[in-house]
Amino acid sequence: MINKNTIIDNIKTLFYALIIAILIRSLFIQPFYIPSSSMELNLLVGDRLFVTKYTYGYSKHSFPFSPPILRNRIFEKEPNRGDIIVFKTPSDNRTDYIKRLIGLPGDTIQFINGNLYINNNQVFTALISDSELLYCGNQQIKVSIYEEKLPNNKTYKVSYRNDLSFKNSDKYIVPDKHYFFLGDNRDCSKDSRFLSEVGYVHFNNLVGKAQILFFSSNSREGSILEIWKWPSIVRKDRFFKKIK
């Protein structure tokens, strides 16, 4: 016969474990899964990564289900241009997106003939390859790969389609306390260029900074639950890799 005290002790243990897990997830780190190809080559579908919640301080979106317990951000720290950040989309304040921070408050962002301009200055790019295949959804597209260098000297790889690439835009003027994000897979990304779907992201919507890849599997080739496929789908070279 099960002792009543044993049941109560087990319930207490589970309760305390749940509280600790919520605190760790809310205040320190949270795991995220990459479901789309909008950040390739840098983040692949099937990557699992850790996001630090404390990097930019805390808002209601730091907590599960975004409870209205904080009106504004506390212990706030300004993000750096080029950071890869998880944020809640302004359209519903619920969906998590992960993109690269390009525009800071007050910046003017524009595309002219396929080139990115920040505050009327063209962002430096160096061609790496003009014939690579990347995924866009379930389709592979031919792209050119560039190294992009932001005004703060942050460098990373971006890709543009060799056909139907995003060429020209109006000027995006980033409002106060807002940020402008782009995907690294530029022609396969819903980001701040699409004002009705993403647009400018308020500081309070930032969830955290992507820091470390801890696991990765090619989900297009099989489910992680299919253990017998691990030798072919697990990307061992992406384990515990710092995100740039």
Count up the domains.
1
Report the principal-axis shape: globular
CATH class: Mainly Beta
| Biggest beta-sheet profile | 8 strands, antiparallel
Annotation field: number of helices: 2
CA-based gyration radius: 20 Å
What structural category arises from helix and sheet content? mainly beta
Please summarize what this structure is.
By secondary structure, the protein is mainly β.
Description:
- With 244 residues, the protein is mainly beta.
- The chain has a single domain, classed as Umud Fragment, subunit A, CATH 2.10.109.10.
- It contains two helices and 15 strands.
- It has helices spanning 4-27, 230-233, and strands at residues 29-33, 47-52, 84-88, 96-103, 108-112, 115-118, 121-122, 124-136, 139-149, 155-161, 172-173, 178-182, 201-202, 206-216, 241-242.
- The strands form three sheets. Strands 1, 2, 3, 4, 12, 13, 14 and 15 form an eight-stranded antiparallel sheet that branches.
- The protein is globular and about 75 Å long.
- The chain starts with a helix and ends with a strand.
